[in-house]
Amino acid sequence: MTNSYILRKKNDIDEQVQHYLDEVYSTVVSRNPNETEFHQAVALIFKSLSPILRKYPHYMEKGILEQLVEPERVITFRVPWIDDNGKVHVNRGFRVQFNSALGPYKGGLRFHPSVNVSIVKFLGLEQIIKNALTGQPIGGGKGGADFDPKGKSDNEIMRFCQSYMSELARHIGPDTDIPAGDIGVGATEIGYMFGQYKKIRGNFEAGVLTGKGLGYGGSLARKEATGYGAIYFVEEMLKSKGLSINGSTTVVSGSGNVAIYAIEKATSLGAKVVACSDSDGFIYDENGIDLDTIKEIKEVNKDRIETYLAKHPAAAYFAGCNGIWGIPCDVALPCATQNELDSESAAKLISHGVKAVAEGANMPCTPEAIDAFLENDILFGPAKAANAGGVAVSSLEMAQNSMRMSWTFEEVDEKLQQIMKNTYESCLAASIEFEAEGNLEIGSNIAGFKRVADAMVAHGVI
Ligand SMILES: NC(=O)C1=CN([C@@H]2O[C@H](COP(=O)(O)OP(=O)(O)OC[C@H]3O[C@@H](n4cnc5c(N)ncnc54)[C@H](O)[C@@H]3O)[C@@H](O)[C@H]2O)C=CC1
Ligand SMILES: O=C(O)CCC(=O)C(=O)O
């Protein structure tokens, strides 16, 4: 009698939770039609949340999920600029100020032709949970424009950045919203945007942007932070199985900021990184990639990865990006872009004996690929946790700006290592508490969600 009563109660709450998740998700889909990346990001988070909603049903009673998936503010604006031939172009700019429960909105800006409201919202939603996992006092936001920096002159990029900031400036500030870089936005673009912001405001507010140059308020180790942080996270995952990245064969997709510094740290810890890519194709160098050549191609010459062969004729180049996951490796790090690693690629990695996969990029693995890794007991580091090092050091940059002082590279790196260790441990602890031991996908979503949800409950319905 008692047992069947308990069983019925348990089924009731299971049903309520599932009904609540389904209902909020279907509202997201109907209210935001065609925003497929945003739907995917919502579904990924919701898939992990049943256990915590069962344990703490007050999150449902207080409508936390309904509020979480609706950005506090979405700003869309015109970005007109003039090219070197005098022709006028108009791009569309975005900033999604998604959630400020834990602090001012914080997250990068992406300049890429694919940028639209769906992409900015998926990135913004992920950023809320990621920022919470770092333990830093930062809310979640993201922005960008459908501007393609490829093939543009330095003057064109400067004029674009100035125009973009002419509008964005009125919406941001060191205690309001602090943008940084993402795809297509590095220290050069941040510099031009900072210059324009300073001119408009008539103030030197260093803390309004992060990822700044070292000469005017940037932090040592910010450039390296996302890639290094991903490797610190991978080391924690591997350690849990008595393994290490030392001696591993590693494959990294992309060859931008995240990929380059992931390769640098992995190599310094004894991994052999044999492949990396750009949006045209990938290189395979069985001796281990020469990172100085990659840096020269990507950071100095802004050229294509194929040109690696000029200095390393024994290496191989393959057109197309997906083939990179067919290379046998122990550790795979997708560090390029969303949905770059699908179930077919996951199956290849698994059949070749991959031991760990960690997402340096945001949402690079499709939901089916993630399921395949988890079902096959592959260590899986989700983006929200594995690539949190970049925004964590951005928060340290804000702290240094507030104090008007600078920490050494070693000091920042040490704090980054501690944050990545803490992030790993809080994801693991949540996975254990909610009976999914070692499933860091569930652990990261629950641990990050709980911190944000508790703050939202404390603030009331606002
Ligand atoms: N920069 C940062 O601090 C952080 C970046 N991320 C994420 O990491 C990813 C990469 O960003 P960044 O390195 O900053 O950008 P980036 O602009 O420096 O580099 C992007 C690289 O990816 C390559 N790429 C683009 N599409 C590709 C594809 N389909 N296959 C292979 N390569 C492709 C580009 O050629 C470029 O080399 C993005 O998902 C971004 O959101 C995440 C956390 C922080
Ligand atoms: O450093 C930041 O504020 C943002 C980094 C970022 O865009 C990300 O974590 O995806």
UniProtKB/TrEMBL annotation:
<comment type="subunit">
    <text>Homohexamer.</text>
</comment>
<dbReference type="InterPro" id="IPR006095">
    <property type="entry name" value="Glu/Leu/Phe/Val/Trp_DH"/>
</dbReference>
<dbReference type="Pfam" id="PF02812">
    <property type="entry name" value="ELFV_dehydrog_N"/>
</dbReference>
<keyword id="KW-0520">NAD</keyword>
<feature type="binding site">
    <location>
        <position position="130"/>
    </location>
    <ligand>
        <name>substrate</name>
    </ligand>
</feature>
<feature type="binding site">
    <location>
        <position position="181"/>
    </location>
    <ligand>
        <name>substrate</name>
    </ligand>
</feature>
<dbReference type="InterPro" id="IPR046346">
    <property type="entry name" value="Aminoacid_DH-like_N_sf"/>
</dbReference>
<dbReference type="GO" id="GO:0000166">
    <property type="term" value="F:nucleotide binding"/>
</dbReference>
<feature type="binding site">
    <location>
        <position position="394"/>
    </location>
    <ligand>
        <name>substrate</name>
    </ligand>
</feature>
<dbReference type="Pfam" id="PF00208">
    <property type="entry name" value="ELFV_dehydrog"/>
</dbReference>
<dbReference type="InterPro" id="IPR050724">
    <property type="entry name" value="Glu_Leu_Phe_Val_DH"/>
</dbReference>
<dbReference type="GO" id="GO:0006537">
    <property type="term" value="P:glutamate biosynthetic process"/>
</dbReference>
<dbReference type="InterPro" id="IPR036291">
    <property type="entry name" value="NAD(P)-bd_dom_sf"/>
</dbReference>
<comment type="similarity">
    <text>Belongs to the Glu/Leu/Phe/Val dehydrogenases family.</text>
</comment>
<keyword id="KW-0560">Oxidoreductase</keyword>
<feature type="binding site">
    <location>
        <position position="226"/>
    </location>
    <ligand>
        <name>NAD(+)</name>
    </ligand>
</feature>
<feature type="binding site">
    <location>
        <position position="257"/>
    </location>
    <ligand>
        <name>NAD(+)</name>
    </ligand>
</feature>
<dbReference type="InterPro" id="IPR014362">
    <property type="entry name" value="Glu_DH"/>
</dbReference>
<dbReference type="InterPro" id="IPR006097">
    <property type="entry name" value="Glu/Leu/Phe/Val/Trp_DH_dimer"/>
</dbReference>
<feature type="site" description="Important for catalysis">
    <location>
        <position position="182"/>
    </location>
</feature>
<dbReference type="InterPro" id="IPR006096">
    <property type="entry name" value="Glu/Leu/Phe/Val/Trp_DH_C"/>
</dbReference>
<dbReference type="GO" id="GO:0004354">
    <property type="term" value="F:glutamate dehydrogenase (NADP+) activity"/>
</dbReference>
<dbReference type="GO" id="GO:0005829">
    <property type="term" value="C:cytosol"/>
</dbReference>
<dbReference type="InterPro" id="IPR033922">
    <property type="entry name" value="NAD_bind_Glu_DH"/>
</dbReference>
<keyword id="KW-0547">Nucleotide-binding</keyword>
<feature type="active site" description="Proton donor">
    <location>
        <position position="142"/>
    </location>
</feature>
<protein>
    <recommendedName>
        <fullName>Glutamate dehydrogenase</fullName>
    </recommendedName>
</protein>
<feature type="binding site">
    <location>
        <position position="106"/>
    </location>
    <ligand>
        <name>substrate</name>
    </ligand>
</feature>
<feature type="binding site">
    <location>
        <position position="127"/>
    </location>
    <ligand>
        <name>substrate</name>
    </ligand>
</feature>
<feature type="domain" description="Glutamate/phenylalanine/leucine/valine/L-tryptophan dehydrogenase C-terminal">
    <location>
        <begin position="219"/>
        <end position="460"/>
    </location>
</feature>
